[in-house]
Design brief:
two-stranded antiparallel ribbon; DNA-binding; mainly alpha; 2 strands; homodimer; about 5% strand; 6 helices
Chain lengths: ~150, ~150
DNA sequence: TAAATATAGTTGCTTTTGTCAACTATATTT
DNA sequence: AAATATAGTTGACAAAAGCAACTATATTTA
């Protein structure tokens, strides 16, 4: 019984991996998925967020993140300001350029989803979104955490 | 209205990316996600499947796949037999070892899902699976295809 | 049926992505 | 003030993925 459920969940994960892959492919090659995820978080945290915060949130290696952030700085996508309480850390924010670029990315990705959805009826779309919300809300009550290795 | 839907779908994709990441992380470092996906397909295609089939199905680069298959051969996870109608292609199958190893992998991944689910009620689990099936069946009626770049 | 074109898979080379460990600077704890 | 912890950086490296040229076979076409 539970085995059955697990098998279905695994099947869904595999399937959805490819869905995400197809949609992300479209995200265009200027940024990696990781980079987009970082930009996403910064975009939605306009008050600023530290590198450690991103590491925690997105489960990234700090060295890796550090380099990505450096490249963002070089491209002037972000701005850093040092925390004057704790001089080891910096608050990161998207610059105006960064916000613009991120919005454009969003649009591209959006268009691909529009394309994907174009073959669905309004009702199917509503169902789809409903299912997604259902999954999120159930999983968010679970104790799925990054650090439980 | 539709914008709203798109935003939700994108949010779900981001969220679910991390769910999959967390579950896959557990898949242990012996095989990459791509390798596991390949093994999965071969496992469920006991009659044999060609490299081209895998490329099509999983949207892989043929050079990359070729090397992965070679490593599988070296580890004796798969067996190849040449198609005698078309000598350019080979049917690929998991060997007994390959099947065993894949099953073990499945178990590991299964356990992680059990863990994830352990904090959910039976009813929540049913709902979760129901939503997943809903998404899959809706998307499968859509025209999402690899080759629409 | 010979020449042209297409397809399956391989190989060399490169790029991208990610990991690990050591290190600097600052903070916190004892 | 010494020991320990944390934020972020850097160097070295490994794993994952992509690209293009190539070989061998198949298929199409003139």
């Amino acid at each position: 019984m539970i085995d059955e459920n697990i098998a279905q969940i695994r099947a869904f994960n595999r399937y959805y991996t490819s869905v995400i892959g197809l949609l992300d492919k479209y995200l265009n090659s200027d940024f990696s998925l990781t980079e987009v995820r970082i930009m996403y978080e910064l975009y939605h945290y306009p008050q600023g967020m530290t590198a450690s915060g991103l590491i925690e949130l997105l489960n990234l290696d700090k060295g890796y993140l550090s380099r990505i952030l450096r490249s963002f700085e070089k491209k002037q996508l972000i701005e850093k300001r040092q925390d004057n309480k704790d001089k080891r850390s910096y608050y990161l924010q998207l610059s105006e350029t960064g916000k613009t670029i991120f919005s454009e990315l969003s649009n591209t990705s959006q268009q691909k989803i529009v394309h994907l959805l174009s073959s669905l009826s309004d009702e199917q779309i509503n169902e789809l979104v409903g299912h997604m919300n259902g999954i999120s809300s159930i999983l968010k009550t679970s104790n799925l955490k990054k650090n439980e290795k």
